[in-house]
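Hi L., both proteins are below.
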Amino acid sequence: MTTDVFIRYAEDINEKNEITDFNLFSISGKDISAVSWELPNAPLKNFGEGLLRGMVKNYSSGLSDEAIYTFVVLSAEQPDNAIVNHRKTWGLLNVRGVKVNGVCERKDLIVKGNEGLILSGLGSVKLNSVGVIESLINSGEKVFFSTIQSTNVNMTDSIPRQITEWMSNIWINNGVVFFALGRYDEPDCEIVALGQKRNLQKLKYT
């Protein structure tokens, strides 16, 4: 990446830091740190995919042709009707124009909410695929990406009950979770990486 990228670091995501209040995203974890890369004057909707790809490659150069995992949580609860139960998460995103065909190993998770259904989707995306990551970031939903060091673990083999369980599984396997800070129409582009301190060393400096 270029020197135009501003890097921020949080020693403990549970404490006050210069990146964000992670409690607002319902993100927590013991001994979890964070690093963010910000590209000023570069809209997230256009540059988010490139910035995320740069961070992942910086974290592990051997992933250029590999897949990263994604976990999507629809922001609003959905009505408990036949259409929603049939289309589920990935079907609803497909109708909205998200490039779900570029997401492999797709799985859906539906749980009861206070007023309807909470829908989530799990899958993997080829890092060198064109426009798929961008489409997910620009969906307006809560979208997280991750990668782990071990090649013997497939994080899509089982379906977690919620996003916190998914993140914990990533961190237990020495992985890193990435997400875009702010909405897709933000004027600046910022991607946050979450993980154990030792796994974020390569992301502290460009």
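That was the first. Here is the second:
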Amino acid sequence: MMLEIHKKEDILIPFTIIGEEHWEVNARTILEAVADNWNDELKEPVREEEINALEQRLGIALPHGLKLFYRTFGIADIGEQLQEFDEIGFIKEIWAEHPQYGPGFTEKDREYLPFLILFSDYLGNGNMFCFHSETKEIYYYDHEGSPYLSKMFENVDQYLRCCLISAQSDLFGADTGEEKVAVWTEEILIDLLGEDLVRKWKY
């Protein structure tokens, strides 16, 4: 039966760690429901050879959870836009040829900037998510504010989990409605992340 949200308890927390028991079943339930809701097809898993080639191009290892997610679900619709492999790269390179058009990064931003690799675009609005090449922590690039770079998640597993929770706001039942389910998903995110981080991300 396709996932449909009628009460807050219907919202599925897909996993804590990618790779744990039932993570794939839970994530697939959400991804299939999202795809069906938008009349889309599920994406094909990414081949190991493609992941290896990306790691060689970047010169770093991808976060373990991200690799497992790609191998299982490909560049899936998580409610945000995971980047195609040819778009993944160090965020600093975006402005490398024309630094005069880049943001006025703060001194604190510049501590993180050399290590951050863009892998997800927040709905195409100019804000982006990156993972740290060494620590694998997840940073948020906010094009409207200074500082521009903020640590948001301890790892990519947390980011993908929260995206899949948020994506369920589109799976409202006729007796509930989108606004109510959106409130419920946001309440869950606030419990997981705290209100300040959720406000920065979603607003």
